[in-house]
Amino acid sequence: MRGFLHQRSLAPELLDERAYRDLEELRGNLRDMARYDRCLGVFARATRLVTAALPPTATGYIGLDVGCGSCDFIAYARQATPAVRWVGVDVSPDVLRLARQMHPEVFAICAWGMRLPLADASVDVVTCIHVLHHLNPPETIALLRELRRVARLRVVCLDLSRNVSALVGAWLLTRLTSRNRLTRADGVQSVRRAYTAAEAADLARQAGWAHFHTRLHGPFHYSLTLMQSLA
């Protein structure tokens, strides 16, 4: 099993190939992913890392969630970080169509995270949750470089960590709690495609990240947090 995970898988996920049968199947998958992220504390962890960059009395800040998916994180963050006005970006028109139905109060645009239609340092904080494992190393480097470009204060990336515990946990969680075909297939494949924390840190350095922290959060997740210098 350890040898099986030594190299990350290059096989795409069904979601990446848009190999879903209909939008209702996709909607069910998005709901599953949001439910897991809330229950596993991913949303709470991301907002804590964001608010650590803001003064206690801060107001009027702009947050960008890249790879926003269903916009469930933004809906959560709007309550947890009232000082931040959130905008979402996702590359999939189908996902955004469902996101707008599920959260009509959230503003989101369709764009590539590697080519954001934003000026340098135009947003205060950037989050990127469960996106890196969808990308190959050159794409990941390009994305991390772009996130650094548009963020004025902080970039927070959270993703799955490739290891045996995460693989077994994903298999059990998706089979015990969902019958959705996408959830069951992609939940396991996401771990097989994931970077380790050390691999992600190396890619961040190649993207020009200098002042950043890498941290493991239990066996399932890691975070990369970039603290921008305003000097």
Automatic annotation (TrEMBL):
The record, for InterPro entries, names:
Methyltransf_25, Methyltransf_Superfamily, SAM-dependent_MTases_sf
Q: Where is the Methyltransferase domain?
A: 64-152
Q: Name one Pfam family in it.
A: Methyltransf_25
Q: SUPFAM superfamilies of this UniProt entry?
A: S-adenosyl-L-methionine-dependent methyltransferases
Picking any one GO molecular function of the record gives: methyltransferase activity
Q: What PANTHER family would the database entry show?
A: METHYLTRANSFERASE
Q: What is this protein called?
A: Methyltransferase domain-containing protein
